[in-house]
Amino acid sequence: MAKIDPNNLTGPQKAAIFLMLMGEEFTSQVYKYLDEEDIKRIGIEMAKIDYVPAEAIRKVLEEANIEAKEMLGDLSPSPDEFLKQSLIKAYGDKGKELYEEIKKEIGPGTFKKLRKLDSKTIASFLANEHPQTIAIILAHLDPEISGQVLQHLPEKIRAEVLVRIALLTKIDPEIVQEISDALEEELQSIGGALGKKVGGAEKAAEILAHASRELEDELLTEIEDENPDLAEEIRKYLFTFEDFLKVDDFAIQTLLREISTDDLKLALRGASEEVKEKFFRNMSKRAADLIKEELEMMGPVRVTEVEKAQQNIIKTAKKLEQEGKIILSRGEEELV
Is residue 251 assigned to a domain? Predict the structure, then answer.
């Protein structure tokens, strides 16, 4: 099932969550104003959802300018059942057909099991399969996962797999089911050998966040000597832009004097309302009003640009902390 990242929600994911919050009746009426392709895009995301964290719900409601605290609990209805019932309410028998088409595009249940595995594990599992079989399977997984799996496949078959994916058009459902059945047997025979990802840079950062600052610096310096990219990846998870909520006003004011306005605007574009307000109240009213106005007028921005701007600001904050000019509070760390 799809993992929902509250900080990186896609348009179809936001639409799926919002419609589920509003209920079947509302959703069935909305469907009537959408074309089938849009319904399928939203439906595919809805059917892939396993669990929606409260933070994702809050962000969707904020973006829709809805204040509904009673709606901030985790969604309890089955997304799959919700999709089916809302489509039937909107289109009757035609809704059933749309639902079945969406389910076919997602693929059988075995493909959902693969989505829960680490990309390296999936690549190892598929390495000895025929390139056409691999292409069909990757075409049914999320593009992000498939891209990672492709990187870990043997070099001699990568290009052929990609070509076969590009040449895929309509696939006979019976062939997809046969592949699914074969995969299911292999998964069951291997059993616990296929483990979920339990480590990674994010987990390392989560563990390191509970250590002292001295140990953090010491270990990251050692890692950087051996693997600079890994050290940078861990640093990205150690302090996020949302963590500025925990930083005192003096530190924010000091930071604002050291960063560019362009970086600030881009960074705030992808920040929560609380973080935006944190920065605005530490600026002059004139400066805050100017940035607010520019944010309202700003067109669509790539997520990568927003993340880069946020990382630039975080790096500046870390530098100021190393110089002893500010303190970045972390977790339950006590200050004296």
Answer: yes
DSSP class per residue in 39-90: HHHHHHHHHHB----HHHHHHHHHHTT---GGG-SPP-S-HHHHHHHHHHHH
- Three-state DSSP class for 20? helix
Cα 201–Cα 203–Cα 209 angle in degrees, nearest 5? 100
Residues 230 and 274 placed together within one structural domain of the fold: no
Among the candidates 137, 162, 193, a domain finishes at 193
Q: Compute CA distances 59 → 30, 295, 314, whole Å.
A: 21, 17, 22
Q: pLDDT by residue (tens digit) across 66-124?
A: 544 444 344 445 666 777 777 787 778 777 777 666 655 555 455 666 666 777 878 88
Q: How many domains does the chain have?
A: 4
Residue 6 in domain: no
pTM to 2 decimal places: 0.38
In tens, the pLDDT along 225-281 reads 888 888 888 877 778 788 898 899 999 999 999 999 999 999 999 888 999 999 999
Query: Do both 68 and 155 map to the same domain?
Result: no
Structure token digits, residue 312: 């630039």
How deeply is 162 buried, as exposed, middle or buried, from its count of CB atoms within 10 A (0-12, 13-18, 19+)? middle
* Owning domain of residue 292: 241-336
DSSP character at residue 34: S
Tell me how far apart the alpha carbons of residues 102 and 73 are, in angstroms, rounded to a whole number: 27
Judgement on whether residues 246 and 336 belong to the same structural domain of the protein: yes
CATH for 321: 1.10.220.30
Q: Which residue has the tokens 């880069």?
A: 308
Tokens at residue 290, please?
A: 């100017």
Q: How many CB atoms lie within 10 A of CB 93?
A: 8
Classify residue 59: in a domain, yes or no. yes
CA gap 201, 152 in Å, rounded: 18
Count Cα atoms within 13 angstroms, Cβ side, for 20.
Answer: 31
User: Is 2 contained in some domain?
Assistant: no
Six-digit token string for 224: 């950087």
